[in-house]
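So, can you check this one?
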Amino acid sequence: MNTLMKQDRELGNRSDELADKYRRASQADQLQIKKEIEETVNKHFDVRQQRRKLQLDRMQKELERLRTEIDHRTEQRETLVKSRVQELLGDNGPGF
């Protein structure tokens, strides 16, 4: 993820630099610079898509972990509730 974030920043900066260069360039040079901008923006798009996919994968794993935890706690409800009641009444059993 760090590598993708670094590439994202670098490609964003490069795109900005090329856009400035394009605006200052002669009409004859603008076509070549425009091609460089298109290539850079395409690479930037790919990097951002990779970041989004990685974020989605991480979120899906976290969601699955939470679902598993909820299912487990639902199964253990009676035990957890009894433990909490004991804790509240001063019988130091395990809590939630």
In short: The two ends are 34 Å apart (CA to CA). The chain is about 90% helix and 0% strand.
